[in-house]
Amino acid sequence: MKGILLVNLGSPRSTAVNDVKEYLDEFLMDERVIDYRWIFRALLVQGVILKTRPAKSAEAYKTVWTDEGSPLVVITEKIRKKLQKIVDVPVEIGMRYAQPSIEAGIQKLVDQGVSEIVLFPLYPQYAMSTTETVIEKAEEVRKKKFPKVKINYIQPFYNRDIYINCLAESIKEKLPENFDALQFSYHGVPERHLYKTDPSKTCKIDDANCINSQVDTHNAYCYRHQCYKTTEAVIAKMGLSKEKTIVSFQSRLGKDKWIEPYTDETLETIPKKGVKNLAIVCPAFVSDCLETLEEISVEGKEQFEHGGGENFHYIPCLNDEDRWIDVVKILCEEKLNDFYLV
Ligand SMILES: C=CC1=C(C)c2cc3[nH]c(cc4nc(cc5[nH]c(cc1n2)c(C)c5CCC(=O)O)C(CCC(=O)O)=C4C)c(C)c3C=C
Ligand SMILES: [Fe+2]
Ligand SMILES: [Fe+2]
């Protein structure tokens, strides 16, 4: 029997400082997130970051938390429920970090008689810290606990027409009548991660070709390339000009160089260049979360206004919109059918 596991990033179990600390410990000790040798990672995470960040992050989580829990987990569960209504195999969720874990999700499917799973990492773009770590973790769990279970993984879908159409329509519907620019703010990653996922090791970060060229052997797994390609395809679909579009990267952590331009700096400076009315969307996230509801909608708005901006319009993620659920269904069904081919 077949089943579907939707995997998202995960959130702390509550906004208590200790729960946020436990979550950040698991998240940041992932070698695909902070990719230093174990000893240096432990020194940085446990010796520095976990001393102060949990209290600060707990305060931020409190501002977005709902009666049902973390927005990210609540929305992922809503996606599951809606998908379950339109497919005829069991659907469960699993989080890469914290609860409900990937292992718990697989266990729930196995308990319903499932032995072939389509696992959907809910990230449009590939990165070590997104798709790669989800597959790595799921394979570890599968080999250790469920060796008889087969898993088919859904690949990044940033360039799939069905997804681009869905995102373009969703943005179009929510755009204000008057806006000077539409900003696409993606979660950032350290520049180093782009080199690490380049199989040919030839990426020149400053070379615009990396962003603009079609997919080739060097950028096939390049997160930044995929973010720019997402933007390019969406604005083409919307009929929006490049001149009215801004791409930037948010949520930096630590002292390393992250991919540029940075969202916070961009928000402060664009009003002086004439962008007084801004619409902003975050297409690295399929569901709203701390990074969109607090970092962009609250902090980002303040940065924009501080820079002289007048109207800041945040465009929500796809969340549980019906048209997105239809895309999830199609992507899952493609992989469900793959099992027949092996
Ligand atoms: C969407 C893709 C994501 C990438 C790429 C990513 C990389 C990445 N993240 C951190 C550090 C943090 N991220 C945090 C929150 C967070 N990150 C993503 C997604 C991506 N991260 C999401 C969806 C969320 C929100 C989770 C939620 O519960 O709503 C946090 C925790 C919050 C905080 O303390 O600010 C950290 C820390 C790194 C280092 C990294 C790159 C490798
Ligand atoms: Fe993150
Ligand atoms: Fe490159």
Automatic annotation (TrEMBL):
Residues annotated to bind Fe(2+): 187, 291
Catalysed reactions, semicolon-separated: heme b + 2 H(+) = protoporphyrin IX + Fe(2+); Fe-coproporphyrin III + 2 H(+) = coproporphyrin III + Fe(2+)
InterPro entries (alphabetical): Ferrochelatase, Ferrochelatase_C, Ferrochelatase_N
EC number(s) stated in the UniProt entry for this protein: 4.98.1.1
Chief localisation class: cytoplasm
EC class (word): lyase
Top-rank taxon: Bacteria
Amino-acid biosynthesis found in the keyword field: no
Location(s) in or outside the cell: Cytoplasm
PANTHER family xref list: FERROCHELATASE, FERROCHELATASE, MITOCHONDRIAL
Stated role: Catalyzes the ferrous insertion into protoporphyrin IX.
Protein name from the UniProt record: Ferrochelatase
Organism, scientific name: Chryseobacterium herbae
